[in-house]
Amino acid sequence: MASLGTVVPLQMHFDEALPLRSGASLRDYHLVYETYGTLNADRSNAVLVCHALNASHHVAGVHADDPKSEGWWNNLIGPGKPLDTDRFFVVCVNNPGSCFGSTGPMHDNPDTGRPYGADFPVVTVEDWVDAQARLLERLGIRRLAAVLGGSLGGMQALSWTLQYPDRMRHAVVVASAPNLSAQNIAFNEVARRAIVTDPDFHGGHFYAHGVLPKRGLRVARMIGHITYLSDDSMEAKFGRELRAAELAYSTQDIEFQIESYLRYQGDKFSEYFDANTYLLITRALDYFDPARAFGGDLSRALARAQAGFLVVSFTTDWRFSPLRSREIVKALVDNRRDVSYAEIDAPHGHDAFLLDDPRYHGVVRAYFERIAQEVGA
Question: Which residues does substrate bind (predicted)?
Fold first, then answer.
């Protein structure tokens, strides 16, 4: 399969304020995005890809200034790949509140001329979908062939079917859930507390102090990373392997390889991710719950959806377990919607949605082949 090669990020500015679910609004903002493939004459072959927590608009290809900057879903998207850019025009938007280019806490607040920091308004999945819809309208795309997302991106795909049911044909929801469990909210809260209690956090206004709350970010990432892996995958990769030949009998030194791995992941994350963004995005995860307005009845909530669905889960994903995907499927079946479901037996945990599993990719390829036939792509 061919590679997309070099891709260039694009930026779109918006003067009109974006109303947010919190009652606040975001004005004078910009969104960074990337596109791949060619929009056909009737603009019917566009696919929106929604990113997850620590990802961005850079979903495929590489950037010219960094040949190692391969897109986070490059194994799935490109010429001849399951989402084939020879047939589809793919768009991925960096959500507001992110730290990868779109307006977020690191940017200047137009009201003060200083970085937003902790004053950046709280954003929700629904707000992100509204922002994406505005950008697509500017691009002249009135109806999407599909919206695709994994994890938090899958929540956005699901929300698209409820907020803009007449502007999309299909939703592909991978390793996701209709809301977070209490356990997931608990993990997010522990990670947030690690950040806000870091002495360098300064109430979220650490930019003005010339410091970064790296200690808190490291711990937050370590907590998160544990939830992305299955017990089997950690055992197979690390087991109880020691870092050195002998035990150091220390409570503070690194003894096991799994400890070394987690510290490495935490160190790397703290160098490029913004602490305020982490707080915002995990809160958006917590808040997402389309059934809440219907007394917790997901079937009633999804009655508004018109799209066809592909829902994919992974057997060892305990953060977004297959049970949660089956909840979505049942609610769609209750509404007699067109839904396909695949439960992939994979050992990798939640991270499986990012990996090159041939069964998973085969399911996605077949579904997009069906969509291509519908839209003449």
Answer: 221, 351
Task: Decide: 351 and 234 in contact? Cβ < 8 Å.
Answer: no
pLDDT greater at residue 65 or residue 336:
336
SS3 1: coil
Q: Is 351 annotated as a binding residue?
A: yes
Sign of torsion, CA 238 239 243 248? positive
For 10-179+289-375, the fitting CATH number among 3.30.460.10, 2.60.120.380, 1.25.60.10, 3.40.50.1820 is 3.40.50.1820
Q: What average pLDDT score do residues 329-335 get? A: 98
Closest CA to 31 of 92, 101, 91: 101
Question: Residue 219: which H helix or E strand, with range?
Answer: helix 214-228
Longest CA–CA separation in the chain, Å: 68
Query: Which residue pairs, CB below 8 angstroms and at least 24 apart, start in 108-112?
Result: 110/27, 110/28
Encode pLDDT of 242-283 as tens digits. Answer: 888 888 898 888 889 999 999 999 999 999 999 999 999 999
Q: Give the residue from 66, 54, 80, 77 showing the smallest Cα distance to 9.
A: 66
- CA-CA distance, 24 to 189, in Å (whole number)? 23
Give the 3-state secondary structure of residue 309: strand
Which residue type sits at 302?
Answer: L
Apex CA 191: angle with CA 251 and CA 281, to 5°? 155
Q: Are 52 and 103 in contact (CB under 8 A)?
A: no
pLDDT at residue 67 tops 90: no
- The H or E element containing residue 7 is strand 6-7
Active site residues: 151, 317, 350
Backbone angles phi, psi at 292, to 5 degrees: -60, -40
Give the chain's mean pLDDT: 95
* Cα-Cα end-to-end distance for the chain: 18
Q: Is 15 exposed, middle or buried (0-12, 13-18, 19+ CB in 10 A)?
A: exposed
Instruction: Tell me: pLDDT of 3 over 80.
Output: no
Q: Which amino acid is at 280?
A: L
Residue 241, classed as helix, strand or coil, is: coil
* CATH fold for domain 184-282: Rna Polymerase Sigma Factor; Chain: A (1.10.1740)
